[in-house]
Every structure is written in structure tokens, then in C-alpha cells.
Specification:
Length: 149
């Protein structure tokens, strides 16, 4: 899996945020999280759904009965960074992760299953509720979109 992820990461960066294979045409980002136990940076490629100017990601782990490592990393250290393709270039964005409650989760999760039916298959394979995590942009003092500026 590490080699597979490394190939996706390399392809993503070389092609302005686009990859082929099973992820071709899908919205993909690279999540940089801090290891919950190790404190070391981890990079995980994953599909996302744009929600306003935030990014929803899905802790599906292909329908496994346990959450993916990156989910544990984000719950321990919600400050993270993502790389995302924008107009053929990779941009880096600082984000804060927030696990959505059931009410916020439902419309985003339903949309993801409609757009990418594989997520409905993952849901059917497990008894756990697949968490939806919202990655919200960190607003800085030099960010013109920051209303507190």
C-alpha cells in the first residue's frame, strides 16, 4: 500500500493534481497529517468533495471495520495541510479538521455515494458509520477572505 500511495503522490504532483487509474477524473487531494503516536508527518492521497471553500474527506478505508490511520491522526492533531490541484497546478492549503455530526454528515455523505457509488459499497461492507471529516481553511492575517482582517 505504501508503494501504491507513493506512486499516486508522485503522479499527483507531476500532473498538477490529476492522476490516472482508479482515481482518474476524481477529485483528489494529498492530506499531510501528524501521526497520532509518532508525531511524524504522514501523507495520504484521498478523494474529496468540495463543500464551499472547505474539503470533505471520507474515512471509508474501503469498507474495513476500522478507521484509517489518517482519521486517528486528525482526531489527535486536527491542524493539517493539504495539497490540491487547482487549474492544473498543485496548491498547498493549511486546514483544520472537524469530524461532522450526523446532521452535517448526511447530505455530504449522500452526495458522495451518488457521485461515486463505490462509497455506498464501502458502507455496505461495514457496520461502522463512516466518518466524514471537514477540512476547513485556516484564515491568516494576510488572507483577504479573513473577515477578521
Amino acid at each position: 500500500m505504501v508503494d501504491h500511495n507513493a506512486q499516486i503522490i508522485d503522479e499527483f504532483r507531476a500532473n498538477g493534481g490529476r492522476v490516472g487509474g482508479g482515481f482518474e477524473g476524481a477529485p483528489l487531494l494529498l492530506l499531510h497529517s501528524t501521526g497520532a503516536r509518532t508525531g511524524q508527518e504522514r501523507v495520504s492521497p484521498m478523494m474529496y468533495q468540495a463543500v464551499g471553500d472547505a474539503y470533505a474527506v471520507f474515512a471509508s478505508k474501503a469498507g474495513a471495520d476500522t478507521h484509517p490511520d489518517w482519521f486517528h491522526n486528525l482526531t489527535a492533531h486536527p491542524e493539517a495541510r493539504i495539497e490540491v490541484g487547482v487549474d492544473g497546478e498543485v496548491q498547498t492549503v493549511d486546514v483544520t479538521a472537524r469530524v461532522l455530526d450526523a446532521e452535517e454528515r448526511e447530505p455530504i455523505w449522500s452526495t458522495q455515494k451518488e457521485r461515486f457509488p463505490g462509497f455506498a459499497d464501502y458502507e455496505a461492507k461495514t457496520t461502522r458509520v463512516i466518518p466524514v471529516v471537514l477540512l476547513e481553511r485556516v484564515r491568516g492575517t494576510d488572507d483577504p477572505a479573513d473577515p477578521g482582517r
